[in-house]
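ARCHIVE CARD
CATEGORY: sequence design from structure
SOURCE FIELD: tokenized fold
FIELD CONTENT:
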């Protein structure tokens, strides 16, 4: 067991010696600093964060009590013990009111001292900070619009069997409230504004609840409110959400702007969505190159093919070879089913859990949440490969990205 650490502030030399002897004599207590000057002792308390501070109250009790008030206000996890030869009820009461947890009569009585130490140990044990929750942050991303990232993000968020918040990071034109059939009163812009004083109740008010497990942090209703949001705000908001939810599922824009990069940097996993057409495959390959340049480990990226159909004559193995990465999930193409669920404002995994798309999304969710290893995901039937990946790729000119990896380092043409 760690010893209980002490700092003593005592104006009287006798009291100082006495307390030092009593603390040093015990195995479970350790004296860190002892002094008679409050201005010298206080910085040591702030620096060393002892379990307890003993303040003796002598002729000038008022100064000692002021010191107690200061330590109580600024170091609430530190037990303060007042010690004095004057054990009048009045002084004991004033000590407790100033913030002391205990009162020790001087000269030290070993039995009483042992009781004070036991009570201090009990207080300190209760001060251990509970481990903070840290939910998983998952970005569902595609550098090409229209691949179905919002559809997949919404359904993934609804498929996790745990408390989840879906974040609409398409700040200019986010429409995830329609996907979830909710009418948000507030948005991420409001949360950014009050992020420094946010508590559970305030946060709950800013989210739009969809079900017991799923809420939405909506995009700003007015596009100009988005201009106030900086990448560091996004970072802070994701941290706040991770402390309260098991999963934070983020649907960012399809560009490498600084807001999107803040989310991609911070998330544990990136579900990279593509469709099996040449522009989308090229865009995915370029995205993977950018991820490499940004230093994202490949295990952070999970490639998912959306709108898959056996009519598409592309061999998956060749696509994987071209991308240099395995596809871990497939969502079949079913326009009517997908669009109806969006129009209903209900994720398909809820409105039609027995549909094939729902099963595929649940499989991806299980792989993202760690319930299933990616290797167990079933691959669709392969068809003949046609050699079509020979054309040049244009450069990206995204502001956030250029600032991070430099214009000169923009991905080279294939
Ligand atoms: N598996 C699917 N099968 C058929 N249609 C789909 C599938 N997934 C999504 N869609 C359709 O594709 C369209 C685009 O979907 P979605 O809005 O999710 O894409 P996005 O990548 O978020 O696009 P945006 O560029 O607007 O952000 C929607 O009409 C949706 O119904
Ligand atoms: Mg979208």
């Amino acid at each position: 067991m760690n010893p209980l650490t002490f700092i003593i502030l005592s104006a009287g030399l006798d009291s100082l010696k006495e307390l030092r002897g009593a603390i040093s004599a015990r195995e479970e207590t350790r004296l860190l600093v002892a002094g008679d000057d409050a201005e010298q002792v206080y910085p040591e308390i702030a620096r060393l964060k002892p379990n307890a501070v003993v303040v003796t109250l002598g002729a000038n009790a008022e100064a000692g009590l002021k010191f107690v008030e200061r330590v109580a206000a600024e170091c609430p996890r530190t037990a303060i013990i007042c010690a004095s030869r004057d054990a009048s009820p009045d002084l004991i009461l004033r000590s407790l009111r100033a913030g002391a947890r205990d009162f020790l009569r001087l000269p030290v009585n070993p039995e009483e001292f042992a009781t004070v130490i036991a009570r201090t140990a009990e207080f300190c044990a209760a001060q251990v900070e509970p481990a903070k929750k840290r939910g998983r942050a998952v970005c569902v991303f595609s550098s090409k619009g229209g691949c179905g990232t919002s559809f997949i993000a919404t359904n993934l968020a609804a498929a996790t069997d745990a408390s989840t918040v879906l974040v609409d990071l398409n700040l200019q034109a986010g429409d995830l409230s329609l996907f979830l059939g909710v009418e948000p009163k507030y948005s991420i812009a409001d949360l950014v504004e009050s992020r420094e004083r946010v508590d559970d109740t305030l946060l709950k008010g800013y989210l739009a609840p969809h079900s017991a497990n799923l809420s939405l942090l909506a995009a700003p209703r007015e596009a100009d409110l988005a201009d106030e949001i900086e990448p560091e705000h996004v970072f802070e908001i994701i941290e706040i959400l991770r402390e309260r939810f098991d999963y934070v599922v983020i649907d960012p824009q399809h560009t490498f702007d600084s807001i999107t990069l803040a989310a991609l940097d911070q998330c544990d996993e990136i579900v990279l969505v593509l469709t099996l057409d040449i522009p989308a495959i090229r865009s995915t390959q370029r995205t993977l190159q950018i991820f490499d340049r940004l230093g994202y480990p490949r295990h952070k990226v999970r490639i998912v093919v959306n709108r898959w159909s056996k009519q598409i004559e592309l061999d998956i193995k060749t696509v994987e070879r071209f991308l240099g990465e395995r596809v871990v999930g497939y969502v079949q193409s079913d326009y009517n089913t997908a669009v109806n669920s969006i129009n209903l404002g209900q994720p398909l995994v809820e409105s039609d859990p027995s549909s094939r798309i729902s099963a595929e999304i649940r499989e991806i969710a299980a792989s993202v949440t760690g319930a299933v290893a990616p290797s167990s995901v079933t691959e669709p039937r392969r068809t003949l490969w046609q050699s079509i990946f020979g054309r040049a790729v244009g450069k990206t000119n995204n502001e956030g990205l250029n600032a991070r990896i430099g214009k000169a380092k923009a991905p080279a043409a294939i």
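CARD ANNOTATION: Residues 77 and 127 are 6 Å apart (CA to CA). The chain has 17 helices and 13 strands.
SHELF: design records, drawer C
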